[in-house]
Amino acid sequence: MKFLNYLWNRYATPTNVKIAYILFILASLAIAGGAPGASGGVGGGGVGSG
Amino acid sequence: MILTLAVVAGLIASLIRHRGGALERIAAIPLRYAWLVLLALALQWPLLRAPAGLRQQTDVQQVLFWASHLLLLAFVALNWRLTAVKIVGLGVAGNLIVILANGGLMPITPETLVQINPGSSLAQWPAGAHYGYSKDIILSRQGTVLWPLSDILVLPPPFPWPTAFSLGDLIIALGIIILLQGVPTSLRVLKAESGRA
Question: Which of B45, B115, B135 is the best substitution to test chain A (most A C-beta atoms within 10 A)?
Fold first, then answer.
C-alpha cells in the first residue's frame, strides 16, 4: 500500500492523469467508432457449429 | 485491434516527432464531451458480448448499437474544430452508412472469415448470421450493399490477431494518429485563454 501511494504521488501528476484520460478516450473511440469489426477466433468456431 | 494499435502508433509517432514535448501536446488536446464516447462504448458492449447466432437474437443489442452512433456523431460535431476529429467523423460516417444500408450490422463475407479463421470452411459461416462478439453480420459479396465500405480489408496470420476491417476503420485510425500529434499552438493558446477567462 505504501508503495502504491509512493507511485501515485510520484507519477500521477495532473498532466500524466490528463494524458492517460485522453489515451483512454481515444482507445474507446477506436473500439466504438470502428474496431472491433471481426477478429479471427473471436466468432467462435463457426455459427451453429457448436 | 487494428484501431487500438492506431493509438499506440500515434503515441509512438508523437514521441518521435516531438520528443519531450509530445506528452504536453497530448495533454493539451482540447476534447470536449469525451464522456459521450464512453457512453457510446457502453451501449455497444452488449452487442460485443453477444455470441454467434441468428441476427434476430440480437435485436435489442442492435438498437443500442445504433443509438451509440448518434452519441459518436454528437461527439464529432461538438469537436468539429479539430481537423483530426473531422477525419475520425468521416470514418465513423463511412462505417455507419454501410451498417445502415445492410440492416444494422457491419457486413463481412464468408470468404473474409475463412481468411481470418484459418482452418475454417465457408460452410461454417452462413449468410445472415451475426458473427459472434463483433459488430458484424455474415453476408455474401453479392448480398452486401456498398460492399467496398464493409469489412473487406484483412490482416491475416501470421499477424498475431488476424482481423478484418473496413475503409472507415482505416480513416478513423488515421484521424487518431493525427490527433495524437497534438494540437497547433494557436488552439492551445485559445484553450489556455478560455481556461483563464
Answer: B135
Q: Where are the alpha helices (DSSP H) in B121-164?
A: none
For chain B, the domains span 32-168
| A2-39 per-position pLDDT tens digit | 888 888 888 888 888 999 999 999 999 988 887 655 56
d(CA A32, nearest CA chain B) in Å:
5
Contact B72, B99 (CB under 8 A): no
Residue linked to cell 494524458: A19
pTM for the model stands at 0.86
ipTM of the complex: 0.85
What DSSP line would sit under A8-45, residue for residue?
A: HHHH--HHHHHHHHHHHHHHHHHHHHT--SEETTTT-S
